[in-house]
Every structure is written in structure tokens, then in C-alpha cells.
Design a protein that fits this description.
The complex is a heterodimer of chains A (240) and B (194).
Chain A (H helix, E strand, L loop, with lengths): L2 H12 L5 H13 L1 H18 L11 H11 L12 H27 L3 H18 L4 E8 L7 E7 L4 E7 L8 E8 L2 E8 L7 E5 L8 E7 L11 E5 L1
Antiparallel strand pairs in A: 1-2, 1-8, 2-3, 3-6, 4-5, 4-7, 7-8
Helix pairs in contact in A: 1-2, 1-3, 2-3, 3-6, 5-6
Chain B lengths: L9 H11 L3 H23 L2 H17 L11 H20 L2 H7 L17 H14 L4 H12 L4 H8 L3 H26 L1
Helix pairs in contact in B: 1-2, 2-3, 2-4, 3-4, 6-9, 7-9, 8-9
The chains are: A alpha+beta (240), B mainly alpha (194).
Chain lengths: 240, 194
């Protein structure tokens, strides 16, 4: 889809009125386009105002206590502390390598992002990834190339026992008119996570929605279009 | 273009800072400030009280656990929270096929719910509710209906087209043009305040 076609979809995206391929493409586009991200933010404010056309409704008894109780049981992640334990030394190596990848992405994107909104967007994404990398509890899963892209590689960083995860990939060939698709294999069934395109350096970073089990498998395939419900193209990367 | 319709200036800025510093009282304040509107929205979309509560809980807890995912430059905390509630509610409805629940709950034909209890609300929320209600009168009936179906009934634009018996492109255009018009009217109203 062209930029103008995707821009036309932004109001519907703000109303959650998209699904399938259009939803995937629109979300992916907003991640990289500062102009459309700003438009989405504005329409998001309007959509939230629509909520106010409804008279407020008293929540059920006990709901406040249930939410506060759930928050107390699972508090927000604490700031990361780096120590010299073997596990964290290995994590330190992974952190170092991944941080270089992330820094490379930041550097590249800041060069091409001439608008302040683009820069803030990119920095926000990198901060999300770095938050994962800096978590106190971190599992690292390596992804290996399958042969169709022998120089590709990747690592999945799962933070806080599945609270969040970042997939960092490199060496991905230009997909041309196709698109890469990240899948999460759960109970033997691949579930689509995100369609994406690498930057000109062949790098890509994706945040994976929680919860994530470090024992689950991830696969990257090359698809003709975004929004596929099951893998159709060749595998490029996989865990395990 | 005003980027935030909800900002209470220093109050929301203070709330965000406290959320990021993991102050438990910040979550209480967030709930007390927005839960009634959030629950009202979730209930309207889901048509099921239990589902609505789950949705609202997920939205509040997601902001509590990852306040760093919220970017002030991209809107207000309230808008972020309501978007999360709406998104989760729509996902839940589409997944659970709760259309029957919504019909049983008796969805209203117009924008405001007519069978909700009267709840005392803060002046600033009431003011904004009146402001958006005024702005909606500036949309055409067709635009308003398309937006109502998409937002409150949880329909995709294809679903809106099917419901109204119009082409998908027409539904998408009505939603797009209606939202652009709504944004402009809200900006005008906001500009006229200062």
C-alpha cells in the first residue's frame, strides 16, 4: 500500500476499525512514519473523547480493590542492576552485542528521520528494547538461519519471566516486494506476531507482546504479503 | 492542532511522573480519575459486565506495569488509557462473539447511553463530554452513524459497510471524513477556550 493509502486508514485505525493485512500494514507504517504517527495520536484523542459521550458508569463493587491487588502482586519491573555473576556476564555479552545493534538502528534512523516526531518515535522504540535488555531477569534465545538467508541471525530477549520480549535480527536480505513475518509457535501452531521489513543494513527489532514463554519457538518466514494467518513462504530464521 | 484534549496540565504530568516512579498511590489516583469513564466505555462495547471489568483491569495494569510505553508527545494519559480499553474491548468482543450480549444489553441508537445511572463526575470531564457532544453535531448523520458503529459497536469498516448496506470504500470514507471533521471541530473548540 502507498503512503497515501495508509494515511487514509489512520482514522479507522484510531477507531480500531481495521483488521487483518490492513491492520498489520497500518501499524507497521505508523511505527516508521512520524507524520502518520502524529495523525494517529490526534485521532486517538478524538476517539478517546467519543468515550466521554457515554455517561460514566460506576464500576462493580470491589473492582478497584481487585485492580490494586493485582498490581501489588505483580509490580512494575525494578531498575536493572548489573553484577558479576556468570549468568549476567553472559547477559552482558548479549547486552553489548544487542546494544550495538540497537545503537546502529538509532544512528541510521536518526540520519534519515528529519522530523522531531520521527526521532522521538525511534528513540521511544529503542528505549523499549533497551528496557528489556536492562531487565533484572533475562532469558536469551538464539535464532539460527535456515539456509535461505545464511548470513541472517537473531536473538530473542525475554524479560522478567515473560513480561516483555524483544527480537533483534540482523543480516536479513532485502525482501523486495515481499515482507518478513515473525511467528510464535504455541502448542504446535504458528501464530502471527508481526510483519516487518528490515532497514537497509538488514537489521530489524520487534517488541513481542506479553506474555512470552522462553520455551516457546519463534520463526521468521518470507511472505508475499502481510496479514497471513499461517506461514506460506520459506523459513528464514528459527529458534531451537 | 491541539494534541491533547484531556490534559489537566500539571495534574496529569504529575500522575505520569508518579507512575514511572512506581508510586502505588498513582495507580489509585489513575483509577479514581478515569475508571468510571473507562468502565462505561468497556461496558458499552462489550455488553457484558464481567468482560468489561477484565478489559478495564488489563488496561490499567498494562499502564501500571509499563508506564514507559506511554509517550506524552503522542497524547494524554486519558487518551492512551481509553484507547487501550477500547482496543481490548473490541478484541474481546470480536473474539468472544459478544454481539448477542450487546443486543441483550440494549444498545442505544444514539451516541450517549440512555440507560446509565447518574454519576457525579468531575467538572473537567463533564465539560469535555459536552464539548465532544457539540462537535458531533457538526458531522453529517452518515458520518456520525459510521463512527458510532465502528467505535461503539466494535465493527471494522467492512462491518460498517455491511451493516449499512453501502460499499466498503464509502464506509471507509465516511469514517475518515467524519474523524477529520471531528478533529477540526474539537481543535476549534479548544482554540476558542484560550
Amino acid at each position: 500500500m502507498t503512503h497515501e493509502e495508509l494515511k487514509d486508514l489512520i482514522p479507522a485505525l484510531a477507531l480500531d476499525a481495521l483488521e487483518g493485512e490492513e491492520l498489520h500494514e497500518a501499524r507497521a507504517h505508523v511505527d516508521f512514519c512520524g507524520e502518520c504517527a502524529a495523525i494517529l495520536a490526534a485521532h486517538g484523542e478524538s476517539a478517546a473523547m467519543l468515550a466521554l459521550t457515554l455517561p460514566p458508569s460506576t464500576p462493580p463493587p470491589g473492582m478497584r480493590e481487585r485492580i490494586l491487588g493485582a498490581a501489588a502482586l505483580a509490580p512494575a519491573p525494578a531498575p536493572a542492576r548489573r553484577t558479576g555473576t556468570p549468568r549476567l556476564r553472559l547477559r552482558g555479552l548479549a547486552l553489548g552485542a544487542a546494544s550495538l545493534v540497537v545503537a546502529g538502528l538509532v544512528g541510521y534512523n536518526l540520519v534519515v528521520a528529519s522530523r522531531l516526531a520521527d526521532e522521538r518515535q525511534m528513540v521511544s522504540r529503542q528505549r523499549q528494547v533497551l528496557d528489556v535488555l536492562g531487565s533484572r531477569y533475562l532469558d536469551t534465545i538464539s535464532m539460527s538461519a535456515t539456509g535461505d538467508a545464511p548470513h541472517a541471525g537473531g536473538q530473542i530477549f525475554v524479560a522478567e519471566r515473560g513480561e516483555s520480549a524483544a527480537v533483534v535480527m540482523s543480516g536479513l536480505p532485502d525482501p523486495g516486494g515481499d515482507v518478513y513475518q515473525l511467528w510464535l509457535v504455541r502448542d504446535g501452531r504458528p501464530q502471527p506476531v508481526r510483519a516487518f521489513r528490515p532497514d537497509p543494513k538488514g537489521m530489524a527489532v520487534i517488541m513481542v507482546p506479553a506474555p512470552v514463554d522462553p520455551l516457546e519457538a519463534f520463526v521468521v518466514t518470507l511472505e508475499e504479503r502481510a496479514g497471513e494467518e499461517e506461514p506460506r513462504g520459506p523459513q528464514i530464521l528459527r529458534t531451537g | 492542532m491541539r494534541n491533547t484534549d484531556f490534559s489537566q496540565e500539571h495534574r496529569d504530568d504529575d500522575l505520569l511522573a508518579r507512575l514511572r516512579s512506581q508510586d502505588p498511590a498513582a495507580l489509585e489516583d489513575l483509577f479514581d480519575r478515569y475508571a468510571r469513564a473507562a468502565y462505561g466505555l468497556a461496558l458499552r462495547v462489550c455488553g457484558d459486565a464481567a468482560m468489561a471489568e477484565d478489559v478495564v483491569q488489563e488496561a490499567f495494569l498494562s499502564l501500571w506495569r509499563r508506564p514507559d510505553t506511554f509517550e506524552p508527545s503522542r497524547g494524554s494519559i486519558a487518551a492512551y488509557l481509553f484507547r487501550a480499553v477500547h482496543n481490548k474491548a473490541v478484541d474481546a468482543v470480536r473474539h468472544e462473539q459478544a454481539l448477542k450480549n450487546r443486543e441483550r444489553a440494549g444498545s442505544a441508537g444514539g451516541m450517549p447511553g440512555e440507560d446509565q445511572e447518574v454519576v457525579v463526575e468531575e467538572d473537567w470531564l463533564r465539560y469535555r463530554r459536552e464539548r465532544v457532544a457539540d462537535a458531533l453535531t457538526g458531522l453529517s448523520d452518515r458520518q456520525r452513524e459510521a463512527i458510532r458503529l465502528a467505535y461503539f459497536e466494535g465493527l471494522t469498516y467492512q462491518g460498517v459497510a455491511e451493516r449499512l448496506g453501502i460499499p466498503e470504500g464509502t464506509a471507509k470514507t465516511r469514517i475518515r471524513d467524519g474523524m477529520i471533521r471531528l478533529r477540526a471541530l474539537l481543535d476549534e473548540a479548544g482554540a476558542s477556550e484560550t
